[in-house]
Fold this protein.
Amino acid sequence: SRNQRREPADCSNALPDPLSLEKSLEQSLQQSLQQDSEAGPTFWAVSVSTKEQLEVVLRTEKAARIDIETECFSLKETADALNRIRSTGKKGYLSLPRIFRRNMEKELLDYLNLQADGYVVRTLDELEFLHHHVPEAPVTCDYSVYAYNREAVAVYGQWNRKGSLTLPVELNKKELQDLLQSTRGNFWEWIVYGRQPVMLSTQCTVKNTDACRKSSGYTVLKNGFQDEFLVHRICKYCYNVIYQKQPVCLFSVLDECKTDSMIYRIMLTTESGEETREILSPHGTVTGSTGHYKKGIE
C-alpha cells in the first residue's frame, strides 16, 4: 500500500562512529609526531635585542643560531656581532624590521652587504625584497607571515625553498599538530619563549602624549582594566611594538609538537644578562603563560 509505513533502514554500520573516528585519527597523529620527536637533533635559535643578551648567548652551547634584531642594533654593532658569532661557529641571522617602508631599502641593503648566514622576515614585502637581492640566502618567515594551512605553506615554498616558516602563535595544541601533520617535510620553527607583540603602531605613544624623544626604549602602557603592556619605541624606524608584559613559555611541552626538522626559537626583549642565563640553562626556573597553546583564540 502507498500509505504503508516503512521502518527506517538500519544505518548503524554504514558510517564509522564519529567519536571512534576522531579518536583513531588522534592516535595516528600522536604516533606520527612521536616518531618525529625521536628523530633528528634539537636545534635552538635565540633572538637578541641587547649587547648584554648577546654576550650571554655567545657563551652558551644551547644556541646554534643567533638572530640579531636590526631594529635594536646599528649597522656597525651588527657587523661586530656577526663577526663574534662566526668566531664561535654559530650561525648569525639578521631579523629585519617589523614594518617595511620603501625609504628603508638603502639602509637594509647595507645590512645585506654584511652577508649574514640568513634572515628572519616579518612581512611579505621583506620576503620579496630578499628574493630580489639575495635569492640564494636562507630565510625564516616569522609568525607574522601567516602560514595557517598547507595551501599557504605551498605558496611560501615557491618563494623560499631554502628557508623555514614559523608556527602561528594563535593556534592551540591540536591545531598546531594538525598543521604539522598536513605539511610534513616542511621546515618549521616554533617560538617557545618570548613576549608576544599585541600591536604594531606607527603612532608613537610617547610622541602623541608628550614629545618625540628620538631615543629608543621602553615605556609602560595601561588599559582600562589596569593591565600593563610594554611599549618598545623603535625610534630608528619610527614605530612602536606593544608587548604582553608576561612572556609565553612553552618549555614544558616541547615534545608535543616536535618534528625531525623543528627549530626552537627564544625571543629575548627586556631580559637582563642574568635572566638570559636562567632562560638558557637546562636547570633554570622560567615562568610564563602558555599563550594560545591550550585555549586558542576562540
